[in-house]
Amino acid sequence: MSRKVRAVDLSWEQDTPLSTQHEDFYFSLKNGLDESNYVFLKANHLPRRFISGDLNQPFVIVETGFGTGLNFLAAWDVWSRLQEPKRPLHFISVEKYPLSKTDLKKCLDCWPQLAGLASQLIANYPDLTAGMHSVSFGVDAVTLSLLFGDVNEDLCLHEFLADCWFLDGFSPRKNPSMWTDQLFDLVASHSNDATTLSTFTAASSVRKGLERAGFEVNKLPGFGAKREMITARLKGA
User: Taking the mean position of all CA atoms in its chain, how far away is CA 211?
Assistant: First the structure.
């Protein structure tokens, strides 16, 4: 029997969603989409990489922290604007504390420019049961594999090789379980010399954890008021 997963409790401050579990905001209403594009798409050299390499093989993005799905929609939006030929897109994301469908819709209503894609996500959003849920979207060669579970315990049970990683849990100070040495080792074991990684944080614990796992870490200017962010690749890449 499938195990039900309890939806996270949200509160709203000036139309911005706050996780009561972690006392942290999901995004900035003012520039959340711009931040996703800067931190995750631009830093991983997307969309250029969607049209390079073996065009018959999916481009695999793996994300820690699905949240509102904003990063997924941002990647899908950029991918959808590219002309063929391009690689199919496979987006794998893990979320321990998923939003209810009602809260998901309320959050994504903040981004009317993504309304067409958001409506498809909402219509296909899986029931909140533990495990991996895979959804293919219409005529687009886009697959979302959404894992409701623990990033440290459950993601390792699935086989995949990432082309890039979006590390997007809440801040390490407020959600340290998303930034463990166990996770960094998992990231390394599911990467190759072409895999890239980016994250909004530049916390020393994250940098040192990635370096210990074999990554060469670089700091870039952060988005908005954030002074720095991190990108990384396996050493020797």
Answer: 21
- Of 194, 166, 197, 207, whose CA–CA distance to 35 is shortest? 166
As a whole number, mean pLDDT of residues 100-104 equals: 95
- Reference 8, options 95, 98, 129, 93; nearest CA is 98
Query: Residue 45: is it exposed, middle or buried by C-beta count within 10 angstroms (0-12/13-18/19+)?
Result: middle
Q: Name the DSSP letter for residue 92.
A: E
pLDDT, position 2: 75
Q: What is the pLDDT of residue 31?
A: 86
CA–CA separation, 207 vs 231, rounded Å?
Answer: 9
**In the Cβ-directed half-sphere of 193, how many Cα atoms lie within 13 Å?**
3
Report d(CA 173, CA 102) in Å as an integer. Answer: 28
Measured from the Cβ of residue 89, the count of other Cβ atoms closer than 10 Å reads 24
Rounded Cα gap, residues 32 and 111, in angstroms: 9
Q: Is the peptide bond before 85 cis (omega within 30 degrees of 0)?
A: yes
Amino acid at 86: K
pTM check: above 0.90: yes
Q: Any idea which residue has 């407020």 for tokens?
A: 174
Instruction: Confirm if 128 and 5 have CB atoms less than 8 A apart.
Output: yes
Element (H, E) at 52: none
Model pLDDT for residues 31-59, shown as the tens digit of each residue: 889 999 999 999 999 999 999 999 999 99
